[in-house]
Amino acid sequence: MDNTRFFDFESLTSSGEIECACGQKHRTDLKVLAAGKGVIQELPEALKKLNVRRPMIVSGPFSFPAVGVKVCAVLEKADIAYSAFVFERSSEKKLQPNEKAVAEIIGHFDPACDALLCVGSGSVNDVCKTAATELHVPQLTAGSAPSMDGYTSASAALELNNTKTTVSVNAPVGVICDVDLMAQAPMRLLWAGLGDMAAKACSLCEWEMASVVLGEHYCPYTADLVKLSYERSLSGAPHIPERNPDSVQAVIEGLLLSGVCMSYMNSSRPASGLEHYFSHCWEMMAIARGKEYDLHGIYVGIGSVITLHIFKKLRQLRPDRARAEKAAAEFDRDAWEARLRRVFLGTADSFIALEDKLRKNDRDKRMKRVDTILENWDRLVGILEKAPDPEEVEAILRSSGMPTRASEIGLGADDAADAFVCSRDTRDKYLTSSLIWDIGYMDEFEALVKELV
Ligand SMILES: [Zn+2]
Ligand SMILES: [Zn+2]
User: Fold this and answer.
1) pLDDT exceeds 60 at position 5
2) Which stretch of 92-96, 262-266, 355-359, 421-425 has the lowest confidence by average pLDDT?
3) CA–CA distance from 33 to each of 108, 154, 240 (Å)?
4) 150 found inside a domain
5) Mean pLDDT value across residues 177-184
6) Phi, psi (5° rounding) for residue 362?
7) What is the distance in A from the centroid of ligand 1 to the CA of 76?
8) Which of 55, 97, 100, 145 places its Cα 20 to 30 Å from the Cα of 389?
């Protein structure tokens, strides 16, 4: 192993299935994983290794001129034929990762091609993975920006019916992240990658808490890898403003490892918790109103700082059954529904339907969870104590120059409070906000969230 690298990526791609001590088998479909300076030159060799004869390049209007052109040059030099589809620059600022975008790729797919070669980041990557899965062709990715941890994951974040949804897809078989190219991405995209990685300080604790409260499967081995990916990425923060290649590489390596961890668990659980729901909710609030929204990772970074403050307050609490019982008795279904409608407008229907299916607000179910929480409170506090202090993480993010407060990106106290309170209703996932609701402390924490803007 090259000791300038923090992690032996070869071991991720060559180990096949891991028989884990957690009782599960973990696997990734990745066969090629390269992150480093000039590694785009390894693309022809990667295609050969993957038995791809003719790739179909799929790229976006910004990533194609930045990275796609270079990819084409490398392929041409190696005499590798290819086809290409580039999303047009639309009046909308960003590509919407929805059914329409997936259908566009499928509609333009050249049947002479035997793989998709995604050149891009975020949304292009999400729609490409979905299209490759539907087309039953393998996907390779040449990253354009270190902005999110989805490059190596087996899930895609899509916007279906104005709702942020995560769908299971095939993970790419190859990912190539050329640091020289990715370091030149817009600074906000570099910041977004750090924000997406700050999340892991929260998601790891929340995963473990969910295993205590709901008995969800928890894997210490994968959790350790996620922790490693978090530390690696954040170590790059101070020198991101000058686009230091070693720092950018550190961020990229953390992002890639985090994505592999999600593949291992077939779930976003290890890498995504309440902090991500601030992002999901702010995006959905904007989409419902036809407004622009910020980058996923920028929202997630801000959500991480808020969530770590929530953890800090939570570990000082001593919840009791009487308070939880009172909150359960006072629960007002109409007010709950009205708030979802005010916050998400028409999109609220799907969250109300989800509740009708899950019945997480039912009093008996709630009190059963409360009993488990109270019985295990010391254990839960012990888990929360593993999280770093919010001030520490905020200072690291700040060193990169990125925004860490909602008010810096035009969001107000009510936006933060709405996202916090409604987070637990948008998907079937037990969040820290779900636990706070269960024990009857929602108002206190809503007030805290408002103060943090
Ligand atoms: Zn495991
Ligand atoms: Zn994320």
Assistant:
1) no
2) 92-96
3) 27, 15, 23
4) yes
5) 98
6) -60, 135
7) 42
8) 145
